[in-house]
Design a protein that fits this description.
The complex is a heterotetramer, with two copies of chain A (about 400 residues) and two copies of chain B (about 350 residues).
Chain A (H helix, E strand, L loop, with lengths): L6 H17 L10 H17 L18 H13 L9 H14 L2 H12 L5 E4 L15 E5 L2 E8 L10 E7 L10 E7 L5 E7 L5 E14 L3 E2 L5 H14 L3 H20 L15 H31 L6 H23 L15 H7 L10 H12 L5
Parallel strand pairs in A: 1-4
Antiparallel strand pairs in A: 2-3, 3-7, 4-5, 5-8, 6-7
Chain B lengths: L6 H17 L2 H8 L8 H9 L18 H13 L6 H10 L2 H9 L4 E5 L5 E5 L2 E10 L6 E5 L4 E5 L5 E4 L9 E14 L1 H36 L1 E2 L2 E2 L4 H29 L5 H26 L1 H4 L6 H13 L4 H13 L1
Parallel strand pairs in B: 1-4
Antiparallel strand pairs in B: 2-3, 3-7, 4-5, 5-7, 6-7, 8-9
Helix pairs in contact in B: 1-4, 4-7, 5-6, 7-8, 7-9, 7-11, 8-9, 9-11, 9-12
The chains are: A alpha+beta (about 400), B alpha+beta (about 350).
């Protein structure tokens, strides 16, 4: 048991820190409009890629650095420390699609797509959920009929982040409607410029449009785009989800510590409305204890993350315990943002809050999705209960 | 001792609900929130006036229906249930404290009065029957013909004039847009001392009544969705994770409603410790609304996170309610002070 | 809507208060040993019965006062106010068995048992739960074979409070093992001196022995003791449980307010260990707010109780909403006792706490059962979800 | 960076678990708790000594195994898991601060040392190498040959002599009976200043390690019961009410364990802010143990309320843990002070 980093890791950290300091773009160049954001993210990802900082733990053959998962975590820590902007529009490609292709893709698929993903050339989106298949993903109904060398897809997907700007989609379709639910599904790479697709943005409760609905009307996708075998897509999807529950949120976990730091600063500066003397929030006993609890919990989160990475380093696989961390993380994130609302008081009603690095009100609204998206907290608890603890279904 | 509604009160509830369904449905409120100002509030206000909604608690000799605060509670339950916009609370309170022609105008719906409480950042300088004011969070400013202002001591009436400058702001709750307002206008004190304090308690408990309507609606929404939304081949309401959360929401709703009814009657009847009961109701309604508002979003899953689903509107309204007339912390401190006395 | 009591109710309250003040026995005469407690309870119940204060809302024909449920509540309030000792050993007869007989018993059963119950002549106990049938009451296995004029009972019951001192038991047995689960059950009055019964006390985590296991080895019970029809016992049991969930805990609800008052007093007097200056707990901001929250919630509980009584007065039936109150009450009671532990600090470890009216540590341990006994909190949530809200099973 | 146990550490864990299974099973502890003093601790202590359990972190030249605090953490995990009685913590700490023959006696198990922290109500007057003491809560007094006393500043060793008067008390936790103890005995300071503070941190983190063992056991117990106990024709662990509570218990266990491992290593390695990490671990372990202790009772239903079921023992131990070396409130205040600095 050891808390120290190896000399190589320390050197890696120093190098990463220096490079980020010298090269990170300012987050405010980024813009709000999705296409503009994607353009910014692509340029930034390309810069990291060119300098050898993309895909820290991706194999070198796909343009990655071939380093360890621990170095990946160190990179995220330095990334957060430098307040470098996350290339969020590239999330699905970098954290889902790419790792899935590495695990299950053909050589052609890997060599064609992985460098494009890693270099930021393409935006990927997800096409898993459907209006009738959310938590119950295996209930998906979008059909694909095999017609010669093509799949012909008809149906609808939902909650597709950045569907309107993506070039590719990781798409789950039902290729055998007669088979048992989990047996007739295929995982397909869908080019977003295929004919017969219609994309409609969905406005969230935070007021922004990040998600889309995607409609498929006899969309032809080459059969060569199927990842893994036809009808074996559930296994491939489980691989995708194991990244989602294992390592995809590592950088978010790391960044939560920063959010808590920023919250402490906010509490240090914000006069509390419920205080008769308008003392700053940090002087209020109740706010201060809740803050202290959050700082303690975010430190535990870091220890949990290190422990999970240590475990993965031994086994070589994302550990099932990822769901424990994900659940704890998502609820902690909501507690942190809720505390921000109590510090800001009635200012939040007019969204009239100091804008620094965080727009607190927007962030508070946004993290309502943290216990819904990528597996609701109920699904996470089922997974923990059944797969980790072995309780019966 | 009777904490249930009478048949007459049920009828009032029915009248209000039917009026709101026709005139201020949530769909209509949403169109307004999106900036479609084609349909003004004027007609709605006059019809509400003709139905006597602003004068439920006034004597018949004062143009009222001779009911009381409990019937106003029912009105606000319904307003809260449908998230009805408009300066309801200010108008109902103004009808109590104004006299003569002004009261008659409030009662018949031609003088909508927006309620404003003075905040830290506000300026409100009264001198010689005039006020120079700079207000940062005024709800329903656009449709108001007057402001009913509470500066935590006295209540004032400020009639609209040419000096008013209103700028609407990006607000958390789209169904209750907050504006900044500056003015240099005539201003009259309308309540002081004991009657000012009593009016503040009335305002607080009617806010609670409004919250109770919203809290109960969150339970209904979650239950309705839990019955129809299916996953894994069964309605999600059959899963204990959802079912038990709905049960807890129902408990909170019953807590909030019971505490509010109790405090309302206590205030109506001038019971000695009515202020205490109002603080209890305000605290427990805020607890219930904030938690039910969030739980209702979770119960709706991905849909709950969309703008299209009504769930977020109730959660946002809950925050507005919490900050009206003292947030949770302030109510708790009031109760702490009583314990230590 | 009205908070005032009628002149009759006020007169009733004054009369009750005066009588209790003059006649209540001191609680410390009561003793710890169950038989001694039962003896005390019987004498006290008899005194109330003789003076016309037993069964306030029981019909006069069974020796009750024939008053309203509201007067019953007023009696409980005055009872709590006077700190009169609860005849807890008589709970099952007075709150379960008696009301069930009134609703479903034959004339003979009613006229024989009800006066005995009300006058404190007999202790009743419950025989519903079994080792394999707790939350799932309908899974009960204790068999009763009809043999001439008798039922012959074999099996086992558990969680039978005061089973070792009771004269009668409300006993659920399976009289038709072939029928669907809910259709083959009968509700029987079992005399506790019948042959073939063995009673073993169960020690609780609070260290006391109140519950028993009861074993039945071919116990003969006259068929005349069946309440309702043979095989119709589920309906009778549901009637019993509707009292349990409706009105049986009214007096406990009323008494919780007293517990909170006592807790405020405790906080006023107890120096807080975690306070560097050892200020009393009430001066601590965190303890004080938790106390204030408890006082607010216990007042809401009272309003809920009144509302429930108002509703029952209209409909004439215990309202289904009883489960809402029961759930809120049981969790609030636990929060209150948990707060007492935080006020007392490390004194609780040596059980070295001021003994007043309450033994706080014992009470804290005892109320762990509050979300288990008489329907776990999970069962209460099922009932609320399914029967009140109409959610599917 | 590695927060997992090594194979060597797994082996230590296995050794301790097997020893405790044979020598200090919970059934045996229960017999003691019921007052069956026939089996004393002396033999157990000497075997533990011969296995090197009191000297894991001592240099081999000092009679130890040359391991460190992390291996002691594993020992205490196991002790906590089985609720093992006896003056373990005092003995392990004494072995660090004593020298020569005394240390050797602690190490070989012939000098069990009970740890005592001075409470408000206690008297502990040291003068001229002697102490007159009146202590109200001494655990494991009966089996102790010495006391290791911490008065929040310095640490003292008090050897048992004829002056000791011990009276056991009704205690919340039957597996850790507290006695009152008066004495007029020889007394030596064994740690002061920085080394006293460091010893207090070691005591705190080893308590956390013990708590972690108990916390994890509550999860195991609930899961085991959830798998075998059936109601409504299915194992209760298949109901989300139970399953999800078990999931939350598992999350808390992982939080507690991770925070404790992190703080243990930080303390072992003399990291600058080790005290901070210890406070974090103490706080989160108390949260986890108290909540898991209660949830485990609830998961066991009626059985969980009985004396016979082990669930209550863990809940009671959780209270004892919370009060050892500062309750939740004290830890939180320490963290608050850091935030405000």
């Amino acid at each position: 048991m050891d808390l120290t980093f190896s000399p190589e890791e320390e050197a890696f950290r120093r190098e990463a820190r220096a490079w980020l300091e010298a090269n990170k773009p300012a987050a405010d160049e980024r813009g709000e409009e999705p296409r503009q954001r994607a353009e910014f993210d692509r340029r930034w990802q390309r810069a990291m890629f060119d300098a050898g900082w993309a895909g820290i733990n991706w194999p070198t053959e796909y343009g990655g650095r071939g380093a360890s998962l621990m170095e990946q975590v160190i990179w995220y820590e330095e990334f957060a420390r430098a307040k470098a902007p996350e290339p969020t529009t590239l999330f699905v490609g970098l954290k889902h699609g790419g790792p899935t292709l590495m695990a299950c893709g053909s050589d052609e698929q890997k060599s064609f797509h992985l460098p494009k993903i890693l270099s930021g050339e393409v935006v990927w989106c997800q096409g898993f959920s459907e209006p009738g298949a959310g938590s119950d993903l295996a209930g998906l109904q979008t059909r694909a009929v095999i017609d010669g060398d093509d799949l012909v897809v008809s149906g609808q997907k939902i909650w597709t982040s950045f569907g309107d700007i993506a070039q590719y989609q990781e798409l789950l379709v039902r290729t055998d409607p007669e088979a048992p639910r989990h047996k007739g599904i295929s995982w397909v790479i869908c080019p977003m410029d295929a004919k017969g697709m219609e994309i409609r943005p969905i406005r969230t409760m935070a007021g922004h449009e990040e998600f889309c609905e995607v409609f498929y009307d006899e969309v032809r996708i080459p059969r060569a785009n199927v990842v893994g075998a036809i009808n074996d897509g559930w296994k491939v999807a489980m691989s995708t989800l194991s990244f989602e529950r294992g390592t995809a949120f590592l950088s978010e976990q790391v960044r939560l510590a920063q959010l808590v730091d920023a919250l402490v600063e906010l509490a240090r500066e914000t006069p509390l409305e419920s205080s008769p003397q308008r003392q700053v929030a940090l002087e209020d006993e109740h706010i201060a204890r809740r803050l202290a609890q959050c700082t303690a919990e975010v430190e535990a989160l870091r220890a949990m993350t290190y422990r999970s990475v240590s475990r993965t380093a031994r086994t070589g696989m994302p550990s099932a315990e990822g769901s424990l961390i994900r659940l704890f993380f998502s609820e902690l994130q909501q507690r942190v943002c809720r505390l921000a609302m109590d510090i800001l008081g009635s200012r939040i009603l007019r969204w009239d809050v100091p804008r620094g690095e965080w727009d607190w009100v927007f962030h508070y609204l946004l993290v309502f999705s943290s216990t819904i998206a990528a597996g609701t907290k109920e699904i996470q608890r089922n997974i923990i209960g059944e797969r980790i603890l072995g309780l019966p279904r | 001792m009777d904490l249930m509604q009478s048949q007459e009160q049920d009828a009032i509830q029915e009248t209000v609900r039917s009026f709101l369904g026709k005139q201020l449905s949530l769909e209509k409120t949403r169109r307004w929130a999106e900036g479609d100002a084609a349909e003004g509030l004027d007609d709605v206000w006059r019809e509400a006036g003709s139905l006597g909604f602003f004068a439920l608690a006034l004597e018949e000799t004062a143009g009222g229906s001779g009911f009381s605060l409990t019937e106003e509670m029912i009105l606000f339950n319904e307003l809260g249930r449908s998230l009805a916009p408009g300066p309801w609370l200010g108008s109902v309170l103004a009808a109590r404290v104004l006299g003569g022609a002004e009261r008659a105008a409030v009662v018949d719906g031609s003088l909508p009065c927006a309620l404003v409480t003075i905040r830290d950042a506000d300026r409100f300088e009264v001198e010689g029957g005039r006020v120079r004011a700079q207000l940062s969070q005024v709800a329903d400013a656009a449709s108001a013909r007057a402001l009913l202002v509470y500066d935590a001591a006295d209540w004032y009436l400020v009639r609209r004039d040419a000096s008013w400058e209103i700028a609407s702001q990006r607000s958390l709750d789209p169904t209750r847009v907050l504006s900044s307002l500056t003015c240099d206008s005539e201003c009259a004190v309308v309540a002081r001392g004991e009657s000012a304090r009593s009016l503040a308690l009335t305002a607080t408990i009617l806010s609670c009544a409004e919250a109770v309507g919203g809290i109960e609606r969150t339970v209904e929404m979650s239950v309705e969705y839990g019955k129809v939304r299916e996953q894994f081949g069964q309605p999600i309401g059959s899963f204990q994770a959802v079912k038990h959360r709905c049960a807890d929401m129902a408990v909170r709703a019953e807590v909030a409603r019971s505490a509010t009814i109790y405090a309302t009657i206590a205030l109506r009847d001038g019971v000695a410790n009515a202020a205490h009961h109002v603080a209890v109701a305000k605290l427990l309604c805020a607890d219930a609304y904030l938690q039910n508002g969030a739980d209702n979003i979770q119960n709706h899953g991905g849909m709950g996170f969309t703008w299209e689903c009504d769930a977020h509107l109730y959660m946002k309204r809950a925050h507005g309610f919490d900050h009206a007339f003292g947030p949770r912390a302030t109510q708790l401190e009031a109760l702490v002070a009583e314990l230590r006395a």
